[in-house]
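This part of the workshop introduces the protein records we will be handling. The question running through the whole workshop is how a given chain folds. To make this concrete, we reproduce a full record directly below:
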Amino acid sequence: LEIAAAGAAGFKHRFLGETVAVLWEKCVGGVWSGYTDNYLKVCSRTKRELTNRIVTTRLIELRDNILWGDIDTQDD
């Protein structure tokens, strides 16, 4: 399990700095979560309504094995 977790973290780390499309699903406590087209979970904080929207997002951090993104405001 440790080897699989390390491999998953390495895979996710490769996407840091990339800009990807994320389908945002839900917001809990001000944190949105959604998925990329290759099923990577992404979280972000924003006050925007994102439910069921695909928004261009720059992946900026890997924290607790979850990718965090900065939502591109040009999609408005």
About this structure: Strands lie at 19-28, 31-36, 41-45, 53-63, 66-71.
